[in-house]
Amino acid sequence: MGVPPLYSETNEIFSKDLSETDVGVRLSFPMKALKVFQFLEGENKMEFEAADGIGKRWTFGLSKRKARHPKPVLSSGWLAYVKAKGLQTKDRFVLYGDLDNLSTKKRFRVRAQRKVGRPIKLFGKEIHVEEVWVDVEELEGLKREVSRSIL
């Protein structure tokens, strides 16, 4: 029996390419994603915990308007996450969720990605640069490896 993948595309709640407001103030996201969160009766705020790709746990405050158009946003905890990951506009944020096998509690995972160019070579000659999404933790690991090799 293998270990389940950290990120399963089948349980993605939403993904969003980040705007200036998202990286500077709060993250707004699609209303359809609200269905996975359980607000207490009459409440429009809640907190939830999510693990990132390296296992660090993050606590986010989620709120919604009481009006007809709820407009959900992540506020508390969000800017600390943005700063820790070095997120910028056009980076991508992905939220995943699945039920804990031992209870009915939902477990959440978060992923921060950046689009980078990856050269494609044919017979040693670069013929094309393909843009791919890479987890920001991987980018940090690459930076550390490069700085160690320079020293």
TrEMBL record:
It comes from the Eukaryota. Residues 26-109 form the TF-B3 domain. This is TF-B3 domain-containing protein. The keyword Membrane does not apply. Keywords: DNA-binding, Nucleus, Transcription, Transcription regulation. GO terms for molecular function: DNA binding. It comes from Gossypium klotzschianum. The keyword Hydrolase does not apply. One of its GO terms (cellular component) is nucleus. InterPro entries: B3_DNA-bd, DNA-bd_pseudobarrel_sf. It is found in: Nucleus.
